[in-house]
Amino acid sequence: MNRTPAIAPLLTLALALAGDPARADLDVGDKAPPFEIDAALAGKVFKFSLADQLKRGPVVLYFFPAAFSSDCTIEAHAFAEATEQYARLGASVIGVSTDDIDTLKRFSITECRNQFAVGADVDQVVTKAYDAVLFFKTPYANRSSYVIAPNGSIVYQFNSLNPARHVANTLGALKTWLAKKP
Q1: Which of 5, 79, 132, 145 is deepest in the core (most CB within 10 A)?
Q2: What is the band of 21 on the pLDDT scale with cuts at 50, 70, 90?
Q3: What local confidence, expressed as pLDDT, does residue 76 receive?
Q4: Domain layout of the chain by residue ranges
């Protein structure tokens, strides 16, 4: 009896759960979907516009599943600690989740340490535009990172539920992009 066909769906599911980096619909060279979103920085709510932020330099956009969960807290701390490194590279950071703005106001203070903005995408408009819906828990965002150049093109994308490499990878991508920039 041949069992090979039964293995294929399991392998596909395992790759999806592992955060297969090849899964993203948006890829390097694609135009980043523009968006405006309610965001919080240091507990203050404001309207974040990707287009306006790109006028100041590259943007690191990262999606995370849920504020105050252990891995999202680890990732927020890492981005907060690297804020000065991003600033030296001329970049800004925004995290996006499907949490409501009141939750993110608190998260911006305690876990983001008042260092970068976090946006509330309760209706998943931005999350879906960036193909960042968590495959096996669709009410949540996947842990995905994008580096977007000032001209609106994606210069780097990465998907992994493990929060450990998002900061190092996006910093590396920014440095590579800057080195190639005329």
Answers
A1: 132
A2: very low
A3: 97
A4: 23-180
What one-character DSSP code corresponds to residue 142? -
pLDDT tens for each residue of 117-168: 999 999 999 999 999 998 878 888 999 999 999 999 999 999 999 999 999 9
Contact, 144 vs 30, CB < 8 A? no
Q: How far apart (Å, rounded) are the C-alpha atoms in residues 171 and 177?
A: 10
Q: What is the pTM of this model?
A: 0.86
Q: Are 74 and 82 in contact (CB under 8 A)?
A: no
Tokens (6 digits) for 20:
């297969």
Specify whether domain 23-180 bears CATH 3.90.1150.30: no
The Cα angle at residue 111 between residues 107 and 114, in degrees rounded to 5: 80
Rounded Cα–Cα distance for residues 116 and 52 (Å): 16
